[in-house]
Amino acid sequence: MSFASIVKLFVPKDKVFYNLFEEVSVTLIEMAGVFSRSVSEKDPSMRHKLLKSLEDLEHKNDETTHQIFIELGRNFITPFDREDIHYLATSLDDIADYIWGAAKRIVIYDISDVDETLREFGEIITKSINSLNTCISGMRNMKDLRSITQACVLINSLENDGDDLLDKAMMSLYNTRDIAAVDLIKKKDLYQMLETVTDKCEDAANAIESIIIKYA
Prior knowledge:
- It is a single chain.
- By secondary structure, the chain is mostly helical.
- It has helices at 3-9, 16-40, 44-74, 82-108, 116-138, 145-174, 181-215.
């Protein structure tokens, strides 16, 4: 019997970590949905309301992430390596932080011209987080490794799409002659923040791939 199989024998039936990771995943899906709706919203006041609502969701995710760390210190036996649990939890928390960070920038910078680049980033982020949900849901029993692996591959591909979108957006900004310098700086910062969200999704996918290689 392999070491991984022996470990599985001692994993508690109440897999609290899976429950918490799934809770994080649901919150991230909600955050991605709210952000996508906000950058498609034509009414400025409604857009502002949607963006501000992301703060509560980010706080909710912080609380769940904190609970994961509490359980990590409380439980001697964990479903997979403690380092992997910590890294995955941190990566998922970073996703929430950067989504909220992007939303704050739209509000603080008073960006009213919500453009196609923001909508495209919203779509990429939503697809990435939905794929992460597939991975996290599948980790509970590790029965459909193919779906988990395909979802991880898709997340990596979407991160590349985020890189390409950022490059395209930056070229457009720098080639726009009538844009004020301050507006260029605001948009540049916002676009980079959104691209970082896709990076963090890839980090989480890499953490999940590492886990399934060890324990599947």
